């Protein structure tokens, strides 16, 4: 097997491993949405992590034996392979847009594979590595600054940051190929700076990709990242690693056309998958809202009048109305009840405050005027208190023999007021 064929096989297996790991991780995350660290306690999540590690290792080995302009674009087959694998193992159906994008990406990558030429594996010297690292770092920093300046335009900011992330990931693969080619002849400490650059670019790519998803959704940044990564790596492979295509300039033009076709298919795949995920997440909320809406409609329908009942009551003829009863007897009864209540109130007031008993020898007057003779407070002709104001003394209950009975009072000093007798006689009112 040639080195080119081996790199293609390794790239395909790497893409399958990446796709399988992504599907398993997604299922584990969906099965425990409310527990942050629950996936760490499940063997399936660790199996998915091992599959991702295997995919990364196979990708590195493929870069050591194959050209960047082919291996890196084949890594995008992860999205293509995830489509039938999800339908087969998870039961997730894809729409026509996704299948159309998968076909476009497959045809474009197949054309690129057919046009790529065989070339010897090459590495970059120290000067080239320094130059590439500085140029890449400057481009990534410039895109970060531009994205920060465009904070008022979330879409522009997202695309700028996603472009920087794609460049960082692509150049990380460039340095990975350099180290992999060097290690085919033996591991040396001279590659430690290159390993550090790989770590810096990979970390920057992860951070920028996460920042690009904030505020503008996932479709635009993920599609940008998916396209920029292989394009940058392929451009560096052609310009700095001496990679060529068959049939000269014609083959190069056809390869670029196949790359554009594959990029369009990847964009369709990415956007359709994100739209499907958004619809799946929104479906439970819509079902809940629909249930509430149906409940409300049922409640409203329960109180709506029937179709054959008029909304406005028809006025009946005056001849059909029942005669209104005469209200004069009712008014007479109300007046009589009010008079009885006034009499009872007067009786209560009379028992509460009555004039004191006159002294022996006093003449009885016709009215409740002052009595002659000394009063109970030592006055000389009228009942008066030392303060000068006349007041009624509390009446002592009279016994049956005419002598005043015992004073009924409470131990706290106020007089005991007997309950007024109730008249149990019912007044008959002739209706």
UniProtKB/TrEMBL annotation:
Domain of life, per lineage: Bacteria
Any Gene Ontology CC annotation: membrane
Record-linked Pfam families: Mg_trans_NIPA
InterPro entries per record: EmrE-like, Mg_trans_NIPA
Keyword Transmembrane helix: yes
Annotated TM spans: 43-66, 73-91, 97-118, 130-147, 159-180, 192-213, 219-241, 253-271
Record's bilayer topology term: Multi-pass membrane protein
NCBIfam families: DMT_1
Stated name of the protein: Magnesium transporter NIPA
């Amino acid at each position: 097997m040639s080195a080119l064929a081996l790199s293609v096989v390794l790239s395909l297996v790497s893409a399958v491993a990446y796709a399988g790991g992504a599907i398993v991780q997604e299922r584990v995350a969906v099965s425990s949405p409310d527990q942050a660290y629950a996936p760490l306690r499940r063997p399936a999540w660790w199996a998915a992590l091992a599959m991702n590690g295997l995919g990364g290792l196979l990708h590195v080995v493929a870069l050591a034996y194959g050209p960047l302009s082919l291996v890196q674009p084949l890594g995008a087959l992860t999205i293509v392979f995830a489509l039938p694998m999800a339908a087969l193992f998870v039961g997730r159906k894809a729409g026509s847009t996704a299948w159309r994008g998968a076909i476009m990406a497959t045809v474009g990558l197949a054309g690129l594979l057919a046009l790529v030429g065989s070339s010897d594996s090459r590495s970059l010297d120290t000067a080239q590595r320094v130059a590439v690292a500085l140029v890449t770092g400057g481009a990534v920093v410039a895109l970060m600054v531009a994205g920060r300046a465009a904070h008022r335009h979330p879409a522009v900011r997202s695309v700028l940051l996603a472009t920087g992330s794609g460049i960082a990931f692509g150049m990380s693969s460039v340095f990975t190929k350099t180290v992999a080619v060097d290690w085919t002849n033996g591991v040396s400490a001279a590659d430690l700076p290159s390993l550090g650059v790989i770590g810096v670019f990979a970390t920057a790519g992860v951070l920028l990709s996460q920042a690009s998803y904030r505020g503008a959704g996932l479709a635009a940044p993920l599609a940008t990242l998916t396209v920029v990564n292989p394009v940058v790596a392929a451009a560096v492979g052609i310009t700095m690693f001496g990679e060529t295509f068959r049939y000269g300039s014609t083959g190069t033009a056809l390869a670029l056309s196949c790359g554009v076709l594959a990029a369009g298919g990847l964009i369709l795949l990415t956007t359709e998958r994100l739209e499907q995920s958004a619809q799946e997440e929104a479906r439970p909320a819509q079902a809940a809202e629909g249930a509430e809406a149906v409940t409300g409609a049922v409640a409203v329908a329960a109180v709506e009048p029937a179709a054959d009942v008029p909304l406005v009551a028809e006025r009946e003829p005056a001849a059909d109305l029942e005669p209104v009863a005469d209200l004069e007897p009712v008014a007479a009864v109300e007046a009589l009840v009010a008079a009885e209540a006034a009499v009872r109130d007067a009786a209560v007031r009379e028992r509460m405050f009555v004039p004191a008993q006159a002294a022996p020898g006093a003449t009885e007057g016709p009215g409740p005027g002052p009595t002659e003779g000394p009063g109970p407070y030592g006055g000389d002709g009228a009942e008066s208190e030392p303060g000068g104001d006349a007041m009624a003394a509390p009446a002592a209950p009279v016994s049956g023999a005419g002598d005043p009975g015992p004073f009924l009072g409470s131990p706290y000093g106020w007089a005991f007021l007997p309950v007024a007798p109730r008249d149990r006689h019912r007044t008959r009112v002739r209706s």
